[in-house]
Amino acid sequence: MGKLSSGKTLRGSNGTRARAARCRGVSLLEVVIALAVLGFGMLGAAAAQIATFRASDESRAKVLAHSLAQQQLEAFSAMSTTALETIRTDSSYPNDPANPIDPDPSDSTVMRFNRSWTITPDTPEDDVYTIRVNVAWTGSRGPQTLQLETFKSRL
User: Fold this and answer.
1) Strands (E), the chain
2) 4-18, 23-37, 71-85: range with highest mean pLDDT
């Protein structure tokens, strides 16, 4: 039997000495459990990072699509009504002859957009054109579309 510094006697099973420093060490089981918890945490962080990248890509695509639609609306707004009628009767109507459009060919990500439009005369009232521009693309969630609309007076 051994004596601790406090004067108490320790007894182990089968008469062996119990260790006074038993609570100081870390068992292999505790290390394995800690590594498993850390591993699950890392997997969660990786999944969150992937979701963030996807959301960023989708946001970028929406911004580019909006920019393409807005540019075309501004071009139509600057045109005369005679030019609008010419476009409305063009053989490529209602599709943009520039399709498919890659708004940033210098980057490594190939993003292709298809732009189309409708020009409707006398809507919502006489001497007013309704101009709608649609931009379509395929994103990580499948086919996406964006539509912008404006009005232009014939006068």
Assistant:
1) 2-3, 9-10, 114-120, 128-139, 142-153
2) 71-85
Residue 62 has pLDDT above 50, yes or no: yes
pLDDT at position 12 is: 53
- Whole-prediction pTM value? 0.69
Rg (CA), the chain: 35
Are the C-beta atoms of 68 and 148 separated by less than 8 Å? no
Residue 30, CB-side half-sphere exposure with 13 Å CA sphere: 5
Say which residue, 129 or 10, is predicted with more confidence. Answer: 129
- What are 56's two structure tokens? 């960023």
Tokens in use for 22?
Answer: 């038993």
AA identity, residue 126: D
CA distance 23 to 95: 76
Structure tokens at 76: 């139509």
Residue type, 105: P
Residue 46's pLDDT band, with cuts at 50, 70 and 90, is: very high
User: Chain-centre distance of CA 142, in angstroms?
Assistant: 12
